[in-house]
Amino acid sequence: CHRKKAKDEL
Amino acid sequence: MNIFRLTGDLSHLAAIIILLLKIWKTRSCAGISGKSQLLFALVFTTRYLDLFTSFISLYNTSMKLIYVACSYATVYLIYMKFKATYDGNHDTFRVEFLVVPVGGLSFLVNHDFSPLEILWTFSIYLESVAILPQLFMISKTGEAETITTHYLFFLGLYRALYLINWIWRYYFEGFFDLIAVVAGVVQTILYCDFFYLYVTKVLKGKKLSLPA
What we know:
The structure holds two protein chains of two kinds.
Chain A: no helix or strand
Chain B: H1 3-26, H2 34-47, H3 58-81, H4 96-108, H5 115-129, H6 132-141, E1 143-144, H7 146-173, H8 178-200, E2 208-209
Helix pairs in contact in B: 1-3, 1-7, 2-3, 2-5, 4-5, 5-8, 7-8
């Protein structure tokens, strides 16, 4: 799987 | 939010605070690369532009604001307030050799060809190499103050913990971000040599000095 970035990470 | 992610964030915060306190308490930024700190300020600025476009959580927003504010405060202390103590003669890494290729790469390899996304990608790539001026400075002078090594240790630990966080998220959430992972691996590898010296010297009470 190649998902988009985790928006919640810093 | 898993434990590795949280301790990673706290380790990052610890690094930033240690550096600020070191400069503030000693009234000196000797041995600190202003160039690395400028790059980190640029990293936070370009990455957290999403503060204006999306809200994730109170934790997320406050940490971003703290990181940005602290990085600007650090740059201010180095280049303005305690400028006289800044060791510019030893801070000679050519940052354009980092910023230009990283800028080019973020245009070529990103998740989405939009301004915010390219700037986010730029910040991820730049963060992975932003410590190089600091490591270069230490290799030039051949030594680092112990408090500076604590700063570097927590800064390196933060990305290492994020790597474990990404493995965790891959298995339990099916999340995988190739850009962040590759940059995070590069970033962590850059600290390996330093980690070795930290464990073998600093933790045994010796000062970090490199053989001439």
